[in-house]
Task: structure prediction
Amino acid sequence: MYVTRRLSEYQRNRSELKQPLPEGPNSGVLIIQDEESKPTCCFGSCYGSELKGLPFPQNAKLTVNYIIAANNTTIVYQDPVVFIPVLDQPLSSNRYYAIKRSGKHSGEASANAKEEDRVPCCFCFTRIPEAKPQGADPYDIYQQFEIHQRKSLSRYYFATSVAPDGVPPEFLKRKGWTVEYSTSEDYGLRDDAKGINAKLRSELPSDLNRSVAVGNWYVPFIFVKDGDAKDQLKSSTYYSMTLYQKWEEVYSCENSYKENREVLVNVEVEPEVVKLEGQVIGKETIRVDENGVVWFGFANKSVGLRSVVIDRMKWEEERFGWKSRAVDEMGRGEVRVEVIPKEPWLKDQTNLMEAVQTGRAINVICWWRVLS
Result:
């Protein structure tokens, strides 16, 4: 899912915007505006209120402003939005979901109209009615926009549709709008989601049954179904997703200079357990709806996750040995059991092989890697 990067990193080195996405499928980057990246005015003596350049930060309240001045009259159009980078797209693509942040459509996604929706208007003219905001669907190309600038690092923007025949709503289509920002709301985002920690993930256990966080990501609310979208936007715009790993001892034995140096381990472990608020969810209650949302629930409580979130979670688990699809005729999943010598000096493979070949005393413990 999404990792975080500081905006100042990209301002110092614009070529970083073209770098490949973080490792793994269904990935994205959320931009964190830090002190160094805040726009300034008055020769740097104070902070400005409008953004300059791209990408847009996700830890600030953003408002699209458009000003019309004529005949001593000034009209300001304001549209509070949340710009979320489109999944699996590099930051240099400047592609975003534009989520309404206030009003009756709060929590819904701005959408592009279609050329096929064109209708007659005023004699021989035609027009395309503006599409109304819709329930967010990250897979819908008509809910994706590409943001452009008149020139690099400008504060003036306009948007086009990612869909070839799409027509953006007026507040994004018109040229010359600006983006006002406020740090009064950071949506709980911190620059602490760096994806997987490969070093921690591959380490052998040092403390039995202690969970260790080996990966951190953020998941925008548009990938989570947890009540009304308007309420989600207010309380949980971005969900924190953490991969924990611990090891549990499932078998141990000791060889006290005996000739028999083979150990047969036959232990059944549960390959997958799903919990919601600490309560185990039966697999028979898990369902997938027509929109690709996987639902988990019990009693009157239910939460849905877009399938891309589930797929990414399984990918992270499987690349370190966990098997989700190998199921035998009895319905038990195959898991990876790693055999680890108990004595620290035997963790060196040379010492271990020498001990095995000479029949020296070895305590062998089988551990089961538990992920949550």
User: Anything to note?
Assistant: Residues 195-371 form one domain. Helices lie at 7-12, 170-173, 198-202, 229-235, 307-318, 349-358.
